[in-house]
Amino acid sequence: MKYDVLVLGAGMVGVSCALHLQAKGKSVALFDRQEAGQETSFGNAGIIQREAVRPYGFPRALSVIGTAATNRRLDVRYHASALPRVAGPLLRYFNHSAPAAYEKIAADYASMIAMSIDTHADLIKAAQAESLVEKQGWLMLMRSQKNLEAAFAEADTLQREHGVNHRKLNQQQLAELEPGIAKGQLVGAVHWTDPWTLRSPGDLVKAYAELFNRRGGEMLFGDALTLEKTAAGWQVRTRDGETVTAAEVVIALGPWTTKLTERFGFAPPMFVKRGYHMHYAALPDRKLNHWVLDEERGYLIAPMKNGLRLTTGAELALIDSPSTPKQLIDCEAIARDLLPIGDRVDPEPWKGARPCMPDMKPVIGAVPDVPGMWCAFGHGHQGFTLGPATGELLAALMTGEKPQIDMQPFSAGRRF
Ligand SMILES: Cc1cc2nc3c(=O)[nH]c(=O)nc-3n(C[C@H](O)[C@H](O)[C@H](O)COP(=O)(O)OP(=O)(O)OC[C@H]3O[C@@H](n4cnc5c(N)ncnc54)[C@H](O)[C@@H]3O)c2cc1C
User: Fold this and answer.
1) Which of 102, 239, 317, 406 has the most other CB atoms within 10 Å of its CB?
2) What predicted TM-score, i.e. pTM, was given to this entire model?
3) Which residues belong to any copy of the FAD dependent oxidoreductase domain (predicted)?
């Protein structure tokens, strides 16, 4: 089995890369240990976040750092046992979040986020997946007047500087949009109107992978860690023992990427922010119409295909260490107070890992000093949003075309 390009990893990022390379006339094999869209791209909150032009910076306020350091926050927790491994990347993350550095990073990040809806729209149309998508935006709920006013001011800035649209909702308007939510706890909300949402994010990845297959692409199964350099390029072994070869390889293994690239001498300081989800039965008289973020508590609830999906914030832990879903348990209690919800639907909380870089930007392009190896990973909180844009940009780089935006800020050779 011989291809021009082997794409390792069939999450939102890998599938999108495979589709765009295929569109450039390359013969492409997509390679994963399981069906497409079963990992991080399955369990996320399902928002194509056109509003997310400013990536999550490391908090700089001492009050926030203090509560985080003592593990008293709901939106972020850490495993002390992970600190020896993550302290270095976190220190860099802290430095990149200093105001001047952060503003430059945010400007670069915004250039990619601006491509998110259009690049998904093209693939959604081609994949005939319109029925999976809702276009009503999402709500950022606020509990205090002071924070609501700050959120409104920030939304105005994003509109002015990045064309991000929103509506400002007072308590009454919010109650009309979401009558199921308990009144009195909230003072209003920012309604981000541009983002699109998915009731089953994994199904969209699956629809994109089916499009790739219909267009003649091949999905193969096996362990990407079998990758080897050969005289002619690259090879992996499928789980059936067959050898697959290609001139070039794209590593798009999400949070597992560096496990492979390290073997070829490329070990950027990636760390993961783990997150959990659980589905709950919706009570008949307490319907939720939108995706809602309880901004001041740090969790999100979404009306998804399998029930109301509660997703948690960041847990700084090693990717393979056992689940500790304390944030989920604590947020569940708060969520029940805000919106009466039914029983848990899943037997266990789902756990995933956001692949994060200290400078908050994905890594897209040629792997330094490894000819024929390319990468697309490190999309942190917005990999579902940025998958198709990544595919388009990487395919342009790999075929010698000029990408739509400057790719230097996202290069694998940058200083992390
Ligand atoms: C709780 C939570 C909520 C989120 N909400 C959002 C959101 O609303 N919007 C948004 O844009 N982003 C969101 N994200 C982030 C987003 O989900 C990720 O950035 C994105 O899914 C990463 O995609 P990926 O393709 O890089 O990785 P993945 O989807 O994890 O894909 C990696 C693939 O590599 C495969 N793989 C790994 N190792 C091997 C191996 N050895 N051999 C073969 N195959 C292998 C896996 O099977 C998998 O299919 C959220 C994340 C979490 C955890």
Assistant:
1) 317
2) 0.98
3) 4-397
pLDDT at 177: 96
CA 404 → CA 104, 266, 389, 400, distances in Å?
Answer: 18, 26, 10, 12
Tell me how long the chain is.
416
Match 């649209």 to its residue by tokens: 165
Catalogue all structural domains in the chain, each as residue range(s) with its CATH number.
Answer: 1-57+97-133+199-270+359-416 (3.50.50.60)
Stretches where the chain sits below pLDDT 50 are none
C-alpha–C-alpha distance, residues 202 and 43, integer Å: 7
* Residue in this structure with the two tokens 């979040």, named with its chain if needed: 97
Q: How far apart are CA 69 and CA 280, in angstroms?
A: 31
What is the per-residue pLDDT across 335-363, written as a single tens digit (0 to 9) for each?
Answer: 999 999 999 999 999 999 999 999 999 99
CA distance 6 to 72: 44
Measured from the Cα of 381, ligand 1's closest atom is 15
pLDDT at 189: 98
- Quote the pLDDT of residue 286: 85
Residue 309, SS3?
strand
Three-class SS state of 324 = coil
What burial class does residue 218 get, using C-beta atoms within 10 Å of its C-beta: 0-12 exposed, 13-18 middle, 19+ buried? Answer: middle
Query: How many whole angstroms separate alpha carbon 402 and alpha carbon 160?
Result: 28
Q: Kindly list the protein residues whose Cβ atom lies closer than 6 A to any atom of ligand 1.
A: 9-14, 32-34, 38-41, 44-47, 49, 223-225, 252-256, 275, 277, 311, 352, 354-355, 377, 379, 381-385
Q: In angstroms, rounded to a whole number, what is the distance separating the alpha carbons of residues 371 and 228?
A: 13
pLDDT in tens, 382-395: 999 999 999 999 99
Q: Which atom of ligand 1 is nearest to the CA of 41?
A: 21
